Each structure stands twice: as C-alpha cells, then as structure tokens.
Amino acid sequence: MTTRLALPSFFIVGPPRTGTSWLHHVLSKYTVLPREVKETRFFDVHFHRGIAWYRAHYPKSIENKKVGEIAPTYFASAEVRARISALNPRAKIVCTFRDPVDRVLSLYRLKRAYGMFPWNLEEAMRKDPELIESSKYGSHLKAWLSEFGADRVLATVYDDLRRDPQQYMDVLVDFIGVRRFPLTSIELMHSSDEMTLPRNYQRTRMGTMVADWLKAHHLARVVRKVKRSRMLKLFLGGGSNFAEVPPAVIHKLYEQFRPEVEKLEVLLDRDLSAWKSPPLNGSEQMEQARMNRGLAS
Hints:
Helices cover 48% and strands 8% of the residues. By secondary structure, the chain is α/β, with parallel strands linked by helices. The strands form 2 sheets. A 4-stranded parallel sheet has the order 4-2-5-6, sandwiched between helices. The chain has a two-stranded antiparallel sheet with strand order 1-3. The protein starts with a strand and ends with a helix. Residues 282-297 have low confidence and may be disordered.
C-alpha cells in the first residue's frame, strides 16, 4: 500500500556518539529515513527553512513503512522538544545513554577530526556547550518524558547494544512499531571508526563548512561523491593520533557527570555505578582484590 508521506512517527535523538550511525545503517532497510543525509538538522538548525524543506528529504510516498529520523543533536535542545511536540505530539522518542566520559571523549575527537574547533580537551569543555549539555542525561531525559509522556519515550543503554545488538534492536523496533528482523553477521559487529587529527585544520574546517552548505541546499549527493573518492584524504585524517588524556582530567570528568548519572539511575531504575568513576587499571584491580580479601577474612 502506497500513501503520502506523513511527518516522522519516531525520532532517535541520541545523544551524539551512542551508535546512531550503526542504527541508521540498520534501520534504513526497514523504515523510511531522510534520503541522502543521515541528519537533516531541521528541528535545531534549519527550522526557519520551513516544513517543505524538511519534507524534501523524504520520498513523496511510502509503502507501508514507518517514517523516522535519527538525529543525535536533538537530545539536549529544549527548542527541539517543543518543535517536535507541536508538529507531532504522538511521536515516539528513543534515547541511548553511554558512559558519559567515554562518550564526551568520542564526541570531542569527532569534532576535532572534522575541524569543528582547534582546542584541546580542557579548552573544548569550556568553549563548546554541546560537550557538557549533551551529558546532562538525567535532566534532559526527564524533560523528554515530561514533554511526550513515559509511554512515548524509550531510554536504552549503549552497553546493551555492544553486549547483544540483536536484543537491543528487538526492543527498539518493538517500541517504534516495526516488525523484528535478524541482524546480519556484519551488523552484529558494531564498531566505531578510528579517528586522527586533521592533516590541515583550516582545510578540514573549510571542507566541513562547504559540506554543510551543500547538504542545506539538497546537494548531499556531491558530498557523498567526495567521500567515496580520493579527495576525502585532502579533508579528513592524515594528522597525528590523539594524545592520551591525563588521569586527573578523566577523574574530574567523572566527578562532573556523576550527578546526572545518578539522576538517570533513578529514571531507569538501573545501577550505573560503572559510569561514576574511571575503570581500575591492573595494579588498582589487584589492590582492590587484596582489600576485599582482607575484609572477607
């Protein structure tokens, strides 16, 4: 059965670096997602362009499939929540949460790799609001629940995706109303791309800005062609590896994010102790085991 396109019935809103590229790859075969681009950025960046601009990212008609968008930048925006609610208050919302320090480091490296800023980690944490705001898990999840209702918001955990992708996907598609399907052997092996610093920051930044302009003007096919060509090496990668983050900075980040993790624990009714402090290294594990034996004797 072919019908005219309605507004999306589900949104996977991130936050960033929680497996959304993998989800896009898998769900694109079973749902209707934006053509040519993974993220339209309509509800946060391009809302002024109007609903016709947004609809142009989708086919004019669909064949009995759910329509959705995977948009990790939407998670931390109160404006986005209000705009989606106004246009489709019955939309279903999916969030995925990941160890906040792991996620922030991954997001920081992505932004550096794409020339979005030149700062080191500590500078970026001060100057880029998204790094901190998208880590306010408990506060923003509570806001999504308040806006749409508990029956229309699914909160999932990235650890579950890594541990058992099939079970994770079964829960997600049950929620958005898509029939279950088996993941392929390749899809079962979820992994993240390794990134390096850009060879030339200014060139990479310019390339990213041009790519954003092309996407905004429905010319994403040009961006795809560049990504598939040797020209990509002019803009991405080629620089040095990212430096190790000092342990003191890691500890500080865990302390900073702990209150939001504790809020999330209450909302999910789930123990997230592993996200509240850095994992122990080898010597620390041995010392902890020795202390435990002492306490048990």
